[in-house]
Structures are given as structure tokens and as C-alpha cells.
Amino acid sequence: MAMASQALVSSTFANVNSAKDVSFSSAFSPSSLRCNDAMPRMTVSRGIRVASCAVESLEKEKTSYATKVTRNANFAKLQAGYLFPEIGRRRAAHIAKYPDAKVISLGIGDTTEPIPSVIAEGMKAKAQALSTLEGYSGYGAEQGEGSLRAALQKFYLKLHPDTGVKASEVFVSDGAKCDIARLQMMFGADVTIAVQDPSYPAYVDSSVMMGQTGGYEADSQQYNKIHYMKCTPENDFFPDLASAPRTDIIFFCSPNNPTGATATKKQLEELVAFAKKNGSIIVYDAAYSIYISDDSPKTIYEIPGAREVAIEISSFSKFAGFTGVRLGWTVVPEELLYADGFPVIKDFNRVMTTSFNGASNIAQAGGLACLSDDGWKAMEELVAFYKKNVEIIVEAVTSVGLTTYGGKNAPYVWVHFPGQSSWDVFAKILEEAHIVTTPGSGFGPGGEGFVRISAFGHRENIVEAAERLKKLFG
Amino acid sequence: MAMASQALVSSTFANVNSAKDVSFSSAFSPSSLRCNDAMPRMTVSRGIRVASCAVESLEKEKTSYATKVTRNANFAKLQAGYLFPEIGRRRAAHIAKYPDAKVISLGIGDTTEPIPSVIAEGMKAKAQALSTLEGYSGYGAEQGEGSLRAALQKFYLKLHPDTGVKASEVFVSDGAKCDIARLQMMFGADVTIAVQDPSYPAYVDSSVMMGQTGGYEADSQQYNKIHYMKCTPENDFFPDLASAPRTDIIFFCSPNNPTGATATKKQLEELVAFAKKNGSIIVYDAAYSIYISDDSPKTIYEIPGAREVAIEISSFSKFAGFTGVRLGWTVVPEELLYADGFPVIKDFNRVMTTSFNGASNIAQAGGLACLSDDGWKAMEELVAFYKKNVEIIVEAVTSVGLTTYGGKNAPYVWVHFPGQSSWDVFAKILEEAHIVTTPGSGFGPGGEGFVRISAFGHRENIVEAAERLKKLFG
């Protein structure tokens, strides 16, 4: 490989299909794999710009030994690197180019404010206890500690009196992204899926990995066999279910990442009725529910009948700044059955016990602290802080005539740039205002013409970013 | 479901194929699913005792609604519940039966001693820092923090000067069990695998889940398409490679769980040569390497050529008592290529960035502390403590004429009960000595006739367990 790497000083730029190398390279030391540009040149394909060193063929030539193991064909279908590492790479390249610029990151949606003390104290106390004979504990239940599962049951009771969520139906995990992969592993290769378009990329990418899809179609920018439910201003960001085909699984996120749109009770009733009619399973992503301040449902289980058709995933990441601490959960109701009557919860339990070993006990102590009265109050203050950030961004961007969506019940502002390429706008904002955003088309073709601005940031950075955006687009 | 559950008061006992219900039931509140016995009666099938309520058929009858989603057929192939939850369930049932007995748990292999202060302090400091503006961090790299990856590179350098492991090849994770599942997701359904028999159950179970296997054969107690490499006293616990067929993947664990056997340098050279000849990929599980006190290799990368054929997984669980903290890592060398020349590390990077979001930053701070000079010393003391436990157990068990294996370089004692059923011996030790062990056959048919005794325990419990075992078998 050392030899192969050296050969790479002469690099070429490959097509969209090899764009995974871009994000890959960010994982490597500069010496191990490199293109000859600090930031690879780009090829344009329908508004998505991707780039790559032509690594594979060179490696094949130069390396003397390869195993006889065939590469998983599903991985070869995957397009450009997973979105957020790619954004991170572009950010790093920008900083390298402008070492003196004050780059403000409103891209990946990463929390920035400290974890409230009352919650951090819970984790400190657990770390301390683990160093004592009385307080030490080893393996916990793969499904999560009983106390935390019980606290999450109460959390649901607080959200709505009729959710019916039991502690035994709550599976504590290291985060929603990880649970999505485990759910896909459970569903297997033979299910069909639908996603909102645009949507959080992990739904689609994990589906491709598991072999649920056909190949990628460059024209439509869609994978074969996935149904993309367009969510745009025209349909108030709620899919047209009347024209949607039946799929086995429907991924649905509300408040939505990236659009910030939040489904009303009536819309969710429609969704549940649609799933029930079709015998589909909804995977409902409620990771942003705490940002809801109107009467939109905070859990799918507010909707009668949802227990027979819906799994809910959620996370402490955006509730309490746990993006790095890693703690989430998934609810699988006992009533949810496969076609043969077999309870889905049993297979999910099997996945959790076989391919997972419990969330970190320190993180779980933090989760318990989050759900205490003081912890809850602290989380509400944290969320209020970020929502004030949203207001500042929305005000700035609308003041220069841009149209925004989302924001009301979510930490994301979805800014419309009609007729423009998302990646172009992303590049312009980065180059000229030194602000990292996320190109809407990174969330699916339905996001083209939009840019997502995250409201996670220190206040002074948000205020400055707002000023820069006003200047840039004013 | 409430109705369905009530119907279960009249339960029947199903065949081996439904035994997954047993472990499943441990995840549920008693009210949600129950058999009419506190501990289900058992049916005997070739030495494995399993039991089940006939849940599925009743549920199907009584529940009014089922989705039209077909259950993943691979899950239906899975046999009795994942081993360790099952052991936990039996332990709980025993405690319920003998509330006054002092049950000693030497089953699951769970660490019992406090995390050394120097390491716990690292985690406390991180939890504290997360509550400050300066110390807060959100999402880390999915591959792990740079400082920890660099420290693990140094760790390999310390093990052996020629491993060649680079920081960029180390992927930090929440544990080896989770990485096994992610590796399987990467390999996909079309690979063939070989495992040591007996072996850690997660290799086989994750393989079945991913669809790499055929059905289970009750006669051989093996899944079709998996090659079981028998490891017994007859072959010094090293598989007969001359008679082994080629498979794509070879899972190999040394020091071995459960047998405690440790491959010599010569044996590992044979293994690498075998993989190289066949173009196979070795997944080398080195989770117990720190227990090696002779000159057996502590990493597969001590073997020349291993970088072209081997992935190594490892974990802080048994190094520092991190079973509940959750921290491990996987090394994928750049030289490891699929048949088409595509680097395996690229696909593993893709799995990690798409289906994982980094190990807890607090756990990673603990990992860094582990690898500091003081942390390393503390881990060595911890390991020495457990190895003294091993001596006590081995001495007791051999003093009454039983033959043991393992122990020398591992925290497990593999006790031979020739001609007896592992589950029978397990049940006898639990019933008469109130000691939880692990039946060897739970690790595969090759473990039949053995029981694994874990040396993880407080000294006084180990001493008492040793006494009870002497009495029981003396």
C-alpha cells in the first residue's frame, strides 16, 4: 500500500460513482492516501459536485496481493460519501485555504452549548462510582437499564396520557443513527422502503447497504426500489399519500431533518391510516420532538392505532447536547406484528442482544439525570436558547428577501434558493461568508434548491453569521 | 396484545426452534408475556435443554391486526436465544427459587473489580469538561478521536515493533460485539464463514442474521454453510487446517473465548498462510490479549503477511473493566483488498460513518487514560488480580480430579466433563453449588462436555466458589 499510495501523486478525477473516496479520504492521515490537490477538483453532475482520486484502479495495479473475497455488491451501489463527513472535509479544506478566516459551522447540526451541570453531574457521579467496589457495574442489559427504561416510559406519559408505551418496549441505545442500522439489519434485504424527500441520509444509505435497493439512477438521483415521497412547499412538506405506492417500511421524521417541517395531528392520522391500510411499518424519527412548541404531536403514539404500525426512534443528542455522549432509544410496541403474526419486538430484541451490548452506563446515568425534574428544566432552557438562535437566523435571512421554512418547531432553517444548485449556494456561502451550511440536495433530490442552516451555535456566532448572511444576500 | 398476553396463562412447550422465546421473555415485564411456570419446563434435545411458551400461534389467533411486512427469514433460522441473556434468565430464576442462597456468578464473563481510579478520573474529567464552554464537544469523528487512534497505534508498537498498524487504520467503537455485527453488515449475505468450534456466539448469530447461512440442522447442531473448525484437547485447540475447506471469512479468537486456548506464533503463521493460500479474510478477535503472559502473539499483526489477510477486533472491556462503559476498536489494514482490488478499509469506513456515530466521548477519554503509563500499570494489576483468581479455580478443580484447559493466558477455565451434557453439568453446579457457569455447548457443538468458569469475581467469591466446587465434585 505504501507503494500504491505513492502512485497517487498523479491523480485523476472519477465519476459520481467513485465519490465515496472523498469522504473516505477524510478518515485517513494525509500520508496514507492523497490526491494532488488539497481539495480535489470537482465534476458537476446535475447540481451535485463530487470528486475523487482514481484510487481503486491504481491500487489494483500496484498491490501484489488481493484476497478472493468478493466485495459486497450493495456497497458498490453507494454514491458519494455519507453527507456529513463530506461536509466536514469541505470545512477542513476551506480552513486550510483561509487559515485566518473565522469559519462558523452551521452545517452538520452539532450541538455547541455545554451539557447542563445537573446532567453532567449525573455522569461524573457514575464515573466516580465505577471506581468503587460498591458502585461498580459491568455488563448491563443490552436493552438498557431498568431505571432508564422506566423513566422513558414516564417521559411518554408526560408527552401524552394515551401513548401506552411500556418500559419493556423501550430499547436504550447509543443513538438513533445506530438504531436505524440495526432496524435495517432486522428488516433484511427483502423489504421495500419509502422515505421523505429530502430526508436524513442514514435511512437511504443503510437501505442500500442492506441490499433493499437496486442501483442508483443518475438521472433521477434516486436508488431503484426506494420510493421518495416529495416534501416541498407545494404540499406543505407532507407527502401526497394518495399517490404513494405501498411499501413495507416508511421512514418518517417529524420535526423533519432537514426541512424543519412538523406534521400536524391530522397529517399523522392520515399517515397511520395509510400505513394501516397498506400493512406498512412506520419508522418514526422523533429526535427533534423537544423542539415542538405548538400542539403538533411529540410522539407518533399520540395517534390512535399507531401502536399497531409504528416504531419510534429518538435520542438525547439534540435534547441535552449528547451528540458526543451517545444515547438514544427505540420503542417497539408489542402490538406491532409481522404478516405471520410474529411480534416485531422479539426480532428487535434479538438484534439488540446479538449485535449490541448496551449503551455506555455513564451515558445512561446522564439520561436518567436528563429525565429528572431539574434535568428536564435544564433541557428546556437549552432548547429555548437554540430556538432563539433560530429566530435570529430567520429574521436575518427573511430580511434580505429569502424565503425560509422550518424553524418553528425545529433547530433547522430551510432556506429556499429557487432555481439554484444547493451545492453552488453552499459553496458560495462558504467561500464568501465563511459559513458552513448543508446543501439541501445532500438530503435527496427533493432538497435541491435549498440550503439547511443549523441553529446550533454560540449566540455570538449566530449573530455574526446572521450579519454575514444579510451582507452576502442583501 | 393485552388480550393475547392473557391467553398465555395456558402455555405449551415448543420445540428447539422456538427457544428464542426464552431469552426474549427476560426482556419483558412479567405482565407482558408469561408462561405458567416461573421457570419453563424443559425439553431435552441432544443435551441442549430449551423451553418456550407457544407464543406465536396464540398471538396470531388473538390479535386483530398484523402488518403485511414479511418477517426476515434469516431471523426465523435463529435458534435458542443469544446465550448470555439466557444464562442471565436462568440465574434470575434460580435466585427466585432460592432467595436466600448466595449465588456466585462466574457465567457471563463480566468484570467485577472497580475501574482503576486513574482511568475513572479521566472519564470524570471529561464529563466535567462537557459542562463547560471550553471543554464541550459534540459529534466526534465516527472513526474515533485522533488522540485515541494515535494512542492505539502506539499500543500496537508496544506489543510488537513490526505490526505496522497506523492510527488511520484503527476504528474506535463501542465494543467488539458491535463491530462484529458491523463487519457482517459490510461482508453481506454472500460470503461463507468459518468459526472455531466452540466460539463466542456472536460470530455465528450475526452470520445467520445477515443471511450468510442456511438453516439449522438439529442433528449436527450446526447451521448450514458455516464451517465449524473443531477445537478440542485432541488437536490442542487449534483447528486442523489441512482438512478445512476454503471460506471467505475465518473468525478466530485467541486467547480463545471460551476455551482459553492461545495460539502460538507457529500456529498463527499456519493460519495466515492458510488464509493467504485461500484468499480468505481472518477476523481476529484479540479481546483477551492482555491476559497473555507467555510469548504467544498478542496481535495477529506480529505475523508477517497478516496485514494482507486480517482484520483485528479488540476491546477495553476485559482490559480495564469497561464491559459497561463500552469501548473497543477494530483495525483494518490498508493492504487488505477484496478480489477486485478494492480496499476493505474503505467499505468499513463507510459502515462506520453510516451506521455508527462514534463511541461515547467520555468512554474515549477513559480509553486514553487506559493507555497512559499509569493507566497501563493499573490495567496490568487488574489483570494480575483476575489471573490469580484463575489459579485458585484451576487448583480447586484439578484437586478433585477434573481436567481443565485454558487459564494460562486467559480469564477462563475450560473444565472437561467427558461424556456429560454441558447443560446438565451447568444445572447441577447451579442447583447444588449456587454457582452460575456457562455450558460449553452454548458456544457450539464442539463445546459439549465442557463448562466454562469465568475468573471474573471478587476474591472472596472466587475462594468460596472454589470450595463449593471441591465439595461438589470431591
From TrEMBL, chains A, B:
InterPro entries: Aminotransferase_I/II_large (IPR004839), DapL/ALD1 (IPR019942), PyrdxlP-dep_Trfase (IPR015424), PyrdxlP-dep_Trfase_major (IPR015421), PyrdxlP-dep_Trfase_small (IPR015422). Residues 102-469 form the Aminotransferase class I/classII large domain. GO terms for biological process: systemic acquired resistance, salicylic acid mediated signaling pathway. Keywords: Aminotransferase, Pyridoxal phosphate, Transferase. It holds the Pfam family Aminotran_1_2. SUPFAM superfamilies: PLP-dependent transferases. GO terms for molecular function: pyridoxal phosphate binding; transaminase activity. Coiled coil: none annotated. Its cofactor is pyridoxal 5'-phosphate. PANTHER family: AMINOTRANSFERASE. Belongs to the class-I pyridoxal-phosphate-dependent aminotransferase family. LL-diaminopimelate aminotransferase subfamily. HAMAP family: DapL_aminotrans_1 (MF_01642). This is Aminotransferase class I/classII large domain-containing protein. It comes from Marchantia polymorpha subsp. ruderalis.
